[in-house]
């Protein structure tokens, strides 16, 4: 019973955080990468022309990976690093509180991404399914 509750909680958390990243990444594409690049240049992100599409891809693909529970250590770590960049270049100077443009929300996203990254994903994840298949197959 506890394992089922844990798997459902992990699934719901992965979906919620994954959707947030997916939508934010998608808006970087649909709003135009040129606009995202210009914003990145304005705030001093190095190599903004490379960083903008890279961040968009990390957020879209990472969001999908969290939702599916696939490649979680890689996806979660990349998303946490993405949020550390957001703190460094955008939100850090505004203090802690999100309502003042601070880093509260992005810090929570970074922490949640890391927790998901190393949670194992639960039974309702691609990673969990692959792990069960590897342990269920007898060797020799």
Briefly summarize what is shown:
By secondary structure, this protein is an all-alpha fold. Helix content is 75%, strand content 0%. It has six helices and no strands.
Characterization of this structure:
The chain has one domain (2-136). Helix content is 75%, strand content 0%. The protein has six helices and no strands. It has helices at residues 2-30, 33-42, 48-68, 72-91, 104-117, 126-136. The protein is elongated, with a radius of gyration of 17 Å. The model has no long low-confidence stretch (mean pLDDT 95).
Features of this protein?
140 residues, mainly alpha, 75% helix, 0% strand, elongated, transmembrane helix, transmembrane
Largest sheet report: none
Mean pLDDT: 95
Structure classification: mainly alpha
- Counting DSSP E segments of at least 2 residues, the number of strands comes to 0
Number of domains: 1
Gap between N and C termini: 33 Å
- Beta-strand level of the residues, as a percent range? under 5%
Number of helices: 6
Q: How would you describe the shape?
A: elongated
Which sequence of SSEs, written as H and E, runs from N to C? HHHHHH
Which bin fits the share of residues in helices? Answer: over 70%
Radius of gyration: 17 Å
Contiguous uncertain segments of 5+ residues:
none
Family: Belongs to the DoxX family.
GO cellular component, one term: plasma membrane
Transmembrane segments: 7-27, 47-68, 75-93, 105-126
Pfam families: DoxX
